[in-house]
Amino acid sequence: MSSESPQPATDTPPPSEPPRRKRGCFGSFIRLAFILSLVVALALPFTPYAGKITKRIQDILDSARGAKERIITRDVLRDVIKEVPVVKEVTKEVIREVQPPLPDKFIPRKDIDVATLFNGITVKTNLVTEEGGFASLERLDPEAYKAEFQLSIRVPKANQTLAELSRINKNLPAILPGLEGMLASGKVSGFYHKLYENKTNRVQNDLTRLNKILDRHNFYDTETILELTHPATQRRALLIQSEMDVVADGSDGDRMPALDEYIYLSDYYQPFTSYAWAKTTKTPNPLLARWEDRLAKAQDEFSKKGLSSTRNRELKVMIDQLKLEVGEFKSRSSLIAEKDPFIVLSLLFRGYSDQNKFTPQIGDYAAVIHEGKIYPAICGDYGPSFKMGEASLLMAKTINPKATPYIRPESDLKVTYLIFPGTAEKERSAPDLAKWQEKCQALLGEVGGIGAGYTLHVWEDPFKKPEAPPVTVMPPAATGTTPPANDAATPGTPGTITTPPPAPSTTTPPLPGPATAPIILSPTPPPAEASKVGEKKAAPKAEPKKSSGGKSKTKGK
């Protein structure tokens, strides 16, 4: 026998331990998922989602409960009357006029228009435009504005440089020292091109229908329209060089209760201006009674039977217009061209304020420059869209005393209108000439000021009442000790009054000191002194009433 005992096999497990099974991947995944679910369930109540999950479960239970209740109640027939509120939907339609964009340069045109006249004749016209020289020069050239079988028009170009502007008014550089600096960044306004576009459109329409077309003078009525901005203050200004026609519109019972008859009977007169404000007194407009009489006559004729349909339509339009104007007379006041300094804007400006910040509007302040003088004004009314350069009768007569509603004060293109867009007051009121003066002075200061040796014209109040003559003050009755009738009073003694002989044509001098002090009147002064004592200060004479008339459509007198 061998002495060595056999060794047990090492890879054979002991009989007491059962063999372990090898775990698969699927089992491990299930176990891991269970552990994660358990952890989430334990942590979920402490997270913000616990409330949302609870609410969602509650909604599901309520929905199920509601569904169950609906199923039960479907078998019950009941008449239920339910009031449904009626909601009215109101749609407000806002119509807004959108203006076409302004042209930024001259656009040549060659248009053909065909129309049939009342007698059946067909008329064909051909309008051709070309860019020319300055308006003041083209006005003198017969070839610039001529009619053949076609109408050929040279549309003028605008002044832009200081030298070109000075050609119209040599005083401009001295009056406005800041003008040259603004011209560096200035440009010709689209309103200039729009104005001449309106003019050519009107000529085309009138020529086709054989109407009276614009004459050469009124076609070339504008030299330039420039949009300027001061480099330091950023104050905007619209500079226009034109002529000056006369407007004589407007009426105001509060300030001028009487009106000359020839005013409202003159051609083109309108009793209202675009600048208006609410009446402040009960004094009726001087034209109210006449308009009411016209309205009564129109209504009386309209009530008659047997009128033609055409006449009935005319009367209906007339009555509606007169009613509107009578209401305006009773509630509003307007500028008075004879008394107020204002200029007229062309209708071509209206409607462009949203797209062009240089658009002038009613109430904006302006400075009118003619030769070497500057006049403050406001934009007070609108005029035709194919014209430029109109001012009130007061402004016209100040520039040229010979001006009338039918004779313009300046026929050449020598008037410069410097308008400050966006400066109109929020609330309109009766003209305050002192305030207008102050505002225009300040605005001119924002574009470089007024040159040395020039001043802004000061308008006198046309409705200022004349000063009352000086009141002669008589000495009060004597309150001191009066000597008896038989006693002789010593002149100059306190408590006594010495009465000098009556001196004709003399005025009692002012009382010295308190009224109770003794007064000693000296004898009649020598002739030289008497003339000074008796000299009275003459009261200023009231300004004679000036006449005004209708809006001028002058033809170049």
Order of helices and strands: HHEEHEEHHHEHHEEHEHHEEEEEHEHH
What is the first-to-last residue Cα distance?
A: 164 Å
Order of neighbouring strands in the sheet with most strands: 7-13-10-12-11-14
So what's the overall shape? extended
How many distinct beta strands?
14
Number of helices: 14
Report the structural category: alpha+beta
Q: How much β-strand is present in the residues? A: 15-25%
Q: What value does the Rg take, in angstroms? A: 46 Å
Give the uncertain stretches in residue-range form.
1-5, 481-557
Give the % helix: 25-40%
Average pLDDT rating: 80
Most strands sheet: 6 strands, mixed, barrel
Structural overview:
The chain is α+β, with helices and mostly antiparallel strands. Helices cover 28% and strands 16% of the residues. It has a six-stranded mixed barrel with strand order 7-13-10-12-11-14. Strand 11 (365-370) and strand 12 (373-383) form a beta hairpin. The longest helix is centred in the first third of the chain and has 25 residues, at 49-73.
Key features?
4-stranded mixed beta sheet; extended; alpha+beta
Quick rundown:
The protein has 557 residues and is of the alpha+beta class.
Summarize the topology:
Elements: H1 25-43, H2 49-73, E1 110-116, E2 122-131, H3 135-138, E3 145-147, E4 151-155, H4 162-168, H5 172-175, H6 179-183, E5 187-188, H7 190-208, H8 216-219, E6 222-229, E7 236-247, H9 261-265, E8 276-278, H10 288-302, H11 309-331, E9 332-334, E10 342-346, E11 365-370, E12 373-383, E13 390-392, H12 393-399, E14 410-419, H13 433-445, H14 527-533
Parallel strand pairs: 2-4, 7-13, 10-12
Antiparallel strand pairs: 1-2, 3-4, 5-6, 6-7, 7-14, 8-9, 10-13, 11-12, 11-14
Helix pairs in contact: 10-11
